[in-house]
Write a structure and sequence with these properties.
12 helices, Glutathione S-transferase Yfyf (Class Pi), Chain A, domain 2, Glutaredoxin, 6% strand, 2 domains, alpha+beta, single chain, four-stranded mixed beta sheet
């Protein structure tokens, strides 16, 4: 039996849901409400000591870290394969997973927070906000949270996230042009699945075309992704109309400034070249 501990709008959990859908696997879910700090309850910390979602329970064996969960599912349920057999392509696939885990997760979190979750925190009492800060055990993550809450799009962490996406989209365009139609070649892999929820979040926030205007290979990839049955089942159909409207409303409010900051970043790159 497969059980996924998730939160309704968790981008990392969406990677797992797409993988499960590609495999045609049946699974149960248990919601962990991140805004009620349920991820820090002792019973959940026994499942995932990092206090994040997702976590996968497979017949009592728990796997954490979304990229590792996706690889575990592919190893355990190998049809259809989502990891290339060729060692070189497998390495290229993992480079995309690494980019997601090391830069794009934080970039998406900061952009999402500055657009919409910041508004939710504004509705908290000072005591509730301080409690949320305290629950973030990592002082670096706490500093990012406080900065993004207090400064919004002007936070240096948001600027860093805007730059991280610019680097990723530049690499996407090059890889898709030279190797496409998927990120590592002719077949869809976990590289594509790992990217899907993060690009979907930018789309829901009405920010995606800020980056991909003028990048036709990436636009074509995105159209193919949106038509996938697994993407529709795991992301499109799991996202309510209310959530879509909420993300677009708040994302649209920062769109102009995000575009300005992206231009700033591109100017810095040109100046340094």
């Amino acid at each position: 039996m497969l059980k996924v501990y998730s939160y309704f709008n968790s981008i990392c959990t969406q990677k797992v849901f797409v993988t499960l859908a590609e495999k045609g696997l049946v699974y149960d879910t248990q919601n962990v409400d991140l805004f009620k700090n349920e991820q820090f309850k002792p019973e959940y910390l026994k499942i995932n000591p990092k206090g994040v979602v997702p976590a996968l329970d497979h017949d009592g064996r728990v796997v954490i870290e979304s990229s590792l969960i996706c690889e575990y599912l592919d190893d355990t349920f190998p049809k259809p394969p989502l990891i290339p057999a060729d060692p070189f392509l497998r390495t290229r696939m993992r480079l995309w997973s690494k980019a997601v885990d090391e830069t794009l997760f934080e970039a998406t979190r900061e952009l999402s927070f500055s657009a919409m979750f910041r508004e939710r925190m504004r509705n908290m009492t000072e005591e509730q906000r301080e409690g949320r800060y305290r629950n973030v055990g990592d002082p670096i993550k706490r500093a990012r949270l406080i900065s993004t809450y207090e400064e919004g799009v002007e936070s240096p962490y948001v600027f860093q996230g805007i730059g991280s996406f610019e680097i990723a989209f530049d690499k996407m365009e090059k890889d898709l042009t030279s190797r496409g139609p998927w990120l590592v070649g002719p077949e869809m892999t976990l590289a594509d699945i790992n990217m899907m929820p993060f690009i979907a979040r930018l789309d829901y926030l009405d920010l995606l075309d800020v980056w991909i205007a003028g990048r036709p290979a990436t636009q074509k990839w995105w159209r193919c992704v949106q038509a996938l049955p697994s993407f529709l089942a795991a992301i499109t159909h799991k996202t309510t109309a209310e959530d879509v409207a909420f993300m677009k409303t708040f994302g649209s409010r920062i769109r102009e400034r995000v575009a300005e900051r992206l231009d700033e970043y591109r100017h810095l790159l040109r100046a340094a070249a």
